[in-house]
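Researcher: Checking consistency across runs. Here is mannan endo-1,4-beta-mannosidase again:
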Amino acid sequence: MNPRGILATLLASCLLIGACSKKPAGAPVSQASAPAVSEFVTIEGTQFRLRGKPYYFAGTNIWYGGYLGSAGPTGDRDRLVRELDQLKAAGITNIRILGMSEASELKRAVRPASMTEPGKYDEQLLAGLDFFLAEMAKRDMKAVIYVNNFWQWSGGMSQYVSWFTGKPVVDPDVTRDWNTFMDNSALFYAVPAAQDAYREVIRTLVTRRNTLTGKLYSEDPTIMSWQLANEPRPGSDANGRANAEIFIRWIDETAAFIGSLAPNQLVSTGNEGWMGTAGDKDLFVESHKSPNVDYLTYHMWAANWSWFDPKDAEATYDSAWTKAQDYLNWHIDIAKQLDKPIVLEEFGINRDGGAFAVDAGTAFRDRYYKAVFDLLHRRAAEGAPIAGSNFWAWNGAGRATNADFMWKPGDDFVGDPPQEPQGLYGIFDSDLSTIAIIREHSAQMQALGQ
């Protein structure tokens, strides 16, 4: 990637840290410009590198990391430390985390929020993110931090639109009108005041000094990548294509802004792939050509996209897996065309029968995880640009306490966000057969980097 920001500043940064960790546009990083000792994840061709070796990983999502790390009422640092140890033992080396949530009247938004209103922040929750990153560093884990959310469960883009247009929030958990919600969230890209506030959030996070380690976030190699948002879409499948131009520009300009603040860290979009880009393959490709986007991301949701019916698993699994293979391989092949690495940073499937309870079976989930992992490992071993995956998500010791399995303030945090039943897709610490599959895959992926 092209250096961004003032050249003298970038050169000074490289000298201090010992490595320029960006890939020059159209060319791999040379050993002269990226010494083997770099603690930052770098890019060479279509491959991540760390400390002079290829970096392949098995990872997870813990959106609530800052919440659990807080010393305030949402926190449980003892649980966090235990579970990071458990994940480390399972071979997890990469964790995707929510960086900022927005206070909202949305029915299923998490409470409290780390941004109470534009420009005002809950320091306890931000310090919780400090703690989470400090503990990850002790275990040599890498973080991917997304700084916004297309969806309602953390406030997200729809809340920005409400703040700066004065319109009431569009709440799909009340209206059940998802197309209207998505089109409303996409207004975010075109509201200048919302973009100004969003950039101030980016600046606040990227330039934050960790209260425990003393490091600026932008100078902390624990952070592999900054991500524009969780699953940014151009709008609904019905109307999203009309926003193509502004969506592409927003990605390019925002990625450039983040890169100017964090020249030693990577930048990614958090996009779901073509299914989350108005179903438009060309728009997915065009929106990821920017030299300011270091690598591609995609997500895969077999049940959400009506490929798989957990209540009729025997009849629908095989056809779902056929679609899943096509989806996985298409994106890997596109990454090769764009000369960038790619990460499958969200995927999951239901417990047997579509149950949510912690003691429900995981036979089809285990089958699915193994099939996904085997495909990714095979393609990586062949030299394809797939670098790793982050399963969605880690529930750990969290447990649902409500009869409807929906989250309420004060409940345990789990990987299933507040908009979804707790136990829908997340992996509990008691899911030993699934954890064993994850451990085996991690060992296979890490062996590719030796």
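Researcher: Does this match what you'd expect to see?
Model: One thing to look at in this run: The first strand starts at residue 42 and ends at 44.
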